[in-house]
Amino acid sequence: CLAISEQRGLLFSGSRDGTVGQWDVHTGRRTATLTGHAGDVACLAISEQRGLLFSGSSDGTVGQWDVRTGQRTATLKGHEGEIYSLAISEQR
């Protein structure tokens, strides 16, 4: 799965090893690896307005990440199964 931040020129890729890769779209180089899931990362969604990336995993959690720092800012738990899809609404 992929998500792109056009404002920051970053591409994020979910991986079967539970990580999220961060890539610079201009150079094609991997700039960071976000860790914290215990299962495959199956979906990603980005909020450009809030500067947040969300990752859904087969471990039943949604990770919330600060796009600027790459730090995980929250873990949303409570799902009884795997998470395969995420959607973001920028409306408030």
Description:
- The chain is mainly β and 92 residues long.
- 0% of the residues lie in helices and 46% in strands.
- The protein is built from no helices and eight strands.
- It has strands spanning 2-5, 10-14, 20-24, 30-34, 41-47, 52-57, 62-66, 72-76.
- The strands form two sheets. A four-stranded antiparallel sheet has the order 1-2-3-4, with no helix packed on it. The protein has a four-stranded antiparallel sheet with strand order 5-6-7-8, with no helix packed on it.
- Strand 3 (20-24) and strand 4 form a beta hairpin.
- It is globular.
- It starts with a strand and ends in a 16-residue tail after the last strand.
- The model has no long low-confidence stretch (mean pLDDT 95).
Integer average pLDDT? 95
Distance between the termini: 26 Å
The counted number of beta strands is: 8
Main beta sheet, described?
4 strands, antiparallel
Radius of gyration: 12 Å
**Helix percent band:** under 10%
- Main sheet: strand order: 1-2-3-4
- The chain-level structural class is mainly beta
Low-confidence stretches: none
Percentage of residues in strands: over 45%
Coarse shape: globular
Count of separate DSSP helical elements? 0
Order of helices and strands: EEEEEEEE
